[in-house]
Design a protein that fits this description.
It is a single chain. By secondary structure, the protein is an alpha+beta fold. Helices cover about 70% and strands about 10% of the residues. It has a four-stranded antiparallel beta sheet with strand order 2-3-1-4. Helix 2 runs antiparallel to helix 11, helix 7 packs parallel to helix 11 and helix 9 runs antiparallel to helix 11. It starts with a helix and ends with a helix. About 25% of the residues are buried.
Length: about 300
C-alpha cells in the first residue's frame, strides 16, 4: 500500500467534510477533556483522603456543669477527676490508639475565640461553659467505632465525635460531582461516535464511485477502508491533542497560577504534574483508537460492492 496515496486520500476526505470534521474534533476534545478531568478528580479525592484521614481525630467530650443541667448524657453531673483518670487509663490500654491529647476548658475557650471570635455568641461564652476533651489519633482511622463503643454513654462523657464523618460527607459530595462529570463525558462520547460514523459514511458516499472501481479491480477491503479509518483517526487525534492542552492549561491556571488554589488553599494537598502527565498518553491513545474502530465497524457493510 502506498503511503502517499493514503495520505492524499486523508487530506481529500478531511477537506470535503470540513464542517463535520471540525464537529468531530470539538466533540472528541470535550469528551476526552471530561474523561481526563474525571480521572484527575478521582486522583485528587484519593490524595485528599490519604492526607486528611491521616490527620483526623476522635474527640471524647467530657461533661461540664452546664451540660449537667441540660444534656441527658450528663444527668449524673460534671465529670470528676477520678472519671477523667479512668477514661485516660482505658485509652492508654487500647491498641488502636496512637496518641492522646488533653484539651482543658481554658484551651478550648482560647481555640474557640481564635476561630469564631467575630461571632455574636463568642462574647457571651465563658471558659467554664466549654468542654474538656480528649483528642485521640488512631493508628487506623477506620477503627472509630472501637472508641465509640467503649466510651459513648459512659459516666462523665457527653459525646464521642469522629471527624472522619465530616470528611466522608465532603468526599461523598466530590465523588458525586465526579460521577456527574463522567455521565456528561459518556454522553459526549456517544455524540462524538455518532459524528464520527456519520462523517465517515458521508465521506464514503461522496467517493462511492472510486471505491467501487477499486473493488472491481481487486483491491482488498482493508486497502479501501484504510483512508477512511485514517481520516477518523487523524480527526480524533487532533481532538485528543486539544483535550490534553485543556488539561495542562487547566492545571497550570487553576492550581499553580491564575486562581493559584495551591497558594490560597494551603490545607488541600493538590495533585502534582505527574498525575496530569500520566493521563495524557491514555487520552491520546483513546482519541486515536476510538474513532478508528468506530470507522472500521461503520464501513464493514457500507463499502461492499
Amino acid at each position: 500500500m502506498r503511503a502517499q496515496f493514503v495520505l492524499s486520500e486523508i487530506g481529500v476526505g478531511l477537506r470535503r467534510n470540513l464542517t463535520m470534521t471540525f464537529a468531530v474534533i470539538v466533540s472528541v476534545a470535550l469528551s476526552l477533556a471530561l474523561f481526563g478531568g474525571s480521572l484527575l478528580m478521582s486522583d485528587q479525592v484519593t490524595t485528599m483522603k490519604g492526607y486528611w484521614y491521616d490527620k483526623v481525630n476522635v474527640s471524647i467530650f467530657l461533661c461540664n456543669k452546664s451540660d449537667a443541667e441540660s444534656d441527658p448524657n450528663c444527668a449524673k453531673g460534671a465529670v470528676t477527676e477520678d472519671q477523667k483518670k479512668d477514661i485516660l487509663g482505658d485509652l492508654k490500654k487500647m491498641t488502636v490508639v496512637q496518641t492522646i491529647t488533653y484539651e482543658s476548658q481554658d484551651a478550648a475557650y482560647k481555640h474557640y475565640k481564635e476561630q469564631f471570635g467575630d461571632s455574636p455568641l463568642a462574647s457571651s461564652l465563658t471558659p467554664d461553659q466549654m468542654q474538656e476533651s480528649y483528642r485521640i489519633k488512631l493508628k487506623d482511622p477506620q477503627k472509630y467505632q472501637v472508641i465509640a463503643t467503649a466510651f459513648d454513654g459512659r459516666d462523665g462523657v457527653q459525646s464521642v465525635q469522629d471527624q472522619k464523618g465530616i470528611l466522608d460527607n465532603l468526599f461523598g459530595l466530590l465523588n458525586g460531582m465526579n460521577w456527574a462529570a463522567r455521565a456528561v463525558m459518556a454522553l459526549m462520547l456517544v455524540v462524538a461516535l455518532m459524528l464520527i460514523v456519520n462523517t465517515v459514511r458521508v465521506s464514503a458516499f461522496s467517493r462511492r464511485r472510486e471505491t467501487g472501481i477499486m473493488r472491481l479491480v481487486g483491491a482488498s477491503g482493508f486497502y479501501i477502508q484504510a483512508p477512511f479509518i485514517a481520516e477518523a483517526a487523524v480527526a480524533g487525534l487532533i481532538g485528543g491533542t486539544v483535550a490534553c492542552g485543556f488539561l495542562v492549561i487547566a492545571r497550570y491556571f487553576i492550581i499553580d497560577h491564575g486562581l493559584a488554589l495551591s497558594q490560597k488553599l494551603n490545607l488541600i494537598n493538590f495533585i502534582g504534574w505527574d498525575a496530569v502527565l500520566t493521563k495524557l498518553p491514555l487520552i491520546l491513545a483513546t482519541s486515536l483508537l476510538m474513532p478508528a474502530l468506530a470507522a472500521f465497524f461503520a464501513l464493514r457493510k457500507y463499502l461492499k460492492v
